[in-house]
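2 proteins. here.
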Amino acid sequence: MNADRAAWGHIAEESLAKWWLHNNPGWHLNVARRGRAEIAYTNDDLPFPNMATIDRRAMNRKYGTTSPERFHIIECKTAMTMNDWGRPMNRIPSHTIT
């Protein structure tokens, strides 16, 4: 992958996250970090060491403190052309899934 394309995608995350917030009132992103940074996520219930870096974690307090609907994972992705991403209903690129 081209370094400039990777940098562009990373820099675009903040504006994409703001666009998501604009279209989803009532939600907040990465509250402790003011919505501006990726966060590391681990699941201690898994039987092996693990960690994933997610672009943003959305939280909506209207769901209370225990509902699983309270949180959403937001991944912000960019593509230079439709060939990079694919047409609607195509598969997600493997580097995005992993």
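next one coming up
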Amino acid sequence: MQTVKNNRQLLSGDWALWDENPNEWGLLKHYAKKLDFERWRQVKVPGSVHEALWKSGEIKHPYHNLNSRAAQWIEHRDWIYGKNLELNPFLKDGAKRVFLEFEGISEKCELFLNGAPIGSHDGAGVPFELEITRYLYDQETPQLQVLIPTPTPEDPQVGWTERTRGLRGRMGYGWDFAPRLVRVGLLGEVSLRFTGEHHLKDFWCRPKLDLQTRQAEVQLEVKVDGPVGADLLFEIALNNEKVGEVSAVGEADGYARASLALPDPQLWWPARMGDQPLYAARVSCADGSDSLETSFGLREISWQRQPQNAGYEWPMTLVVNGKAVFQRGWNWVPADAMGGPRADRKMKHLVELARHAGVNILRAWGGGDPESPEFYAECDRLGLLVWQEMPLSSGGISNLPPDDKDYFARLTPYLERVIKARRNHPSLALWGGGNELTYSENKPLTMEHPLPQLMDRLIREIDPDRDFRPSSPLGAKFDPAPDDTEQWDVHGPWTYRTDPPGPEYKLFNSIKPLLHSELGLPGETRLADQKRFLSRRFRSRAASNPARRHHDGAWWEHGEIVEAFFGPVTGDKLAILASQWLQAEGLRYYVEETRRRWPQSAGIYLWQFNEPWPTVTCTSAVQYSGRPKLAYHGVKKGYQPVTITARYDSPILSKDAPLRVSLWASSDNGEIEGELVSSLKDLSGKDLGTTKEVVRVPGANPVHLRDLEVALPGGFEGVMVLDLSLAGKWKNRYLFSNLPEYPFRKALKHPGLLKGTFS
């Protein structure tokens, strides 16, 4: 079935699929033959080759056990999609031009129609089109072939970034949280578009906002392919009501431009700061040749330096519509390793989860492809800002990006398409050059390198209202270090310390980066999920279990740290609970301590929100199934509008030492005055010390409320529960222990307490 909608004919649905040895299809001119697609595999488009072969039974589910290894042959074949095109009523109704449109493919392709080569494409995550008018009118049933050649060879996570040659993210070549699964296929919608004499593309809505006068206009631009002088009409609507229209004429440079004042402008805000109104924009040719639709939002984003940080190179504080915003960030990775519609379905659930956790910005990591139109539409709707990195990432052995002219010649038109396809989205807040790009000795990349210079130039030309950063972290040092004054933007740590074992409490209490854009801790996936992708023979917790290692235990096993806290744990469920509690405890503390430093620290981005395939253990906070780990709830606690928090160097106390913490609060809801209650109890519920007092929390910066010291009864040894409450509404809970060995072992007898710590 080929669906007709407006002036488009959707080609999604039934296609044929063939595979061939690399290069043979072109060399032997198979494309020139009249092909019988009925003899090919029958598959659905959009979707990946991996998914198609799995659903047909040709390969086993690549996410189960060690099956992804057995599917690696797919990346070493050329894949050819075929479809017979049905004549469309638009041709009979007098359409003069026909365009073949692709929303996105895995990387490269070559196109053939009626046995002849008609064009090619290079680059993942961008739409592209090709006019095919002259190939159609002499054919009753035009035959389309899309050849996807073997992917560009790339290093996996560990390698040399300067060897990068593909225009795609490298995650699929193997990463610490993802298998080697190099996606191949038609991942987005495919359609035919029918127009008259004029063809429209690159519709750009560029809002201009004056916050002082509350006036706004939108500058409108569209590329007009066809004879000069086309009459066009731009229309703007809000909530299905037209708010303005303006006419324009196609100019000699191939564009039509106009501007339109917007009465009573409705501002677009990040989540929790206000609403997310989206203006609908339409441009149409007066003669009916073509039309395009898009949406945009009215918001002003800038990045400011704090007065005490005026000497640093990069402004870090996010300002939206004149208001400084603490960046409640999380790092986002591709929602599904195979990509296509299955990734978009998972993405929608994940973005909703992020919003419910209090996140206001996601960093779309440079190891993946640029995020999809559906991702940006969801972020526009929900008020999540996006820091989009270009698809480049570190290699570990060398993190220096390529700088050769041949690569730049291919990269430039690709980046132009990446930028143009996303610049209308109000959620897009910042462009980044890539992930963890550095010089030698781990010095973060600067604008002295030709690659960020190229990117910056293109962004200034195509999307001049958004800022660009060469990489993340920005430096001047890569890692956080105590008392280091040159910490603009840092990454790490991602693991637990070993002596003493546990999260890095003292480190976080001693560092003061302006921004902490990546850090994390591992936590294990719940047992029910593991049973879905690991057969019984592969569920052993032994380090020798190859499937456990394959599902990222090789990178992220941390059983020795769990044992140091909880002792030898009997039973998978308790071991997983202990792991998840430790991850949640650490990440919550990292968020709370960073927030206590606002506005000196502009924000924090945990690594990582999601995972693209099912891991046994990983730094993700949401499992592949979409079910959150305890870490999700711990971070959500730290990101809530009002927080009451405890600051300490360790949850493990020395014998006979009192409990000493300092109590802090912050409020995004304005000033709060109410009763502060602290209650310390043992596991039996016996009161060890309770305090009550009325406090005032200002509605701007965090405030230190008081230092709390509770002397413990003589000879007391055990786990303690500290409950905090502010104004009877805002609460928090912490666990402490002064047991000399396996300090939290007794807490395992109270699994409900561990699960409920972050509720």
